[in-house]
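Input/output pair, single chain:
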Amino acid sequence: MKQLFVVLFIIICFGCSSKKYIAQIPFKYDYSLDLLKKQAEMEETGLKNKTIVNDNSENLSDEVLYLKEKYSIVLAVMPSKIRNYKLYSYFDPWINTPYKEKSFSKTGIDCSYFLQSLYSDVYKVTLPKDPAGMWKSKSIQVFTGRTFLTEGDLVFFRYDKDHPISDVALYLHNDRILACTDKGLGIYNFNDEYFQLRYIGAGRINEDTRKK
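Output:
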């Protein structure tokens, strides 16, 4: 009986400890399903939230209104926080695109390549395609504080000593980042231990570049 207990104890311990070695944690929020649930709840409560969800004083298109509502749920913020519609319209069709090193196509993307294109299209700023180049770019003001992060900031990570600046992601809202892992492009929790242990610093478009 004691031998059986010891065997079971070892199995349980090793089974639990293996969770510490998960390489990357995917974004688990099913926003499409939650959006449908929220719409159903609104109907059941007599559309009490209509002024919040469907406020269209800006005369936005149906597509933009959908993105505004969708990402307010994904990022757990009020819809009024989602204002850079060009940003969300740009990356939304790319969500779940597989990862592929040094590539930028619908069959596979590298996050630094993708963010280089995004910054060019959305912010009109030209950056290098590699994370280290972005970090050193004169168009970016580098800082290390995590509490200063705002929508559109670049977030840099280090994976090994040979590559001090190994990867880059985009900060959105409420500690959510747009990043590319082995699961593909998705939205992740920046507070996750995987990202926090590898965080090096962040970058923001400097004022001189904005003026140009």
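Confidence is low (pLDDT under 50) at residues 2-32, 42-54. The radius of gyration is 20 Å.
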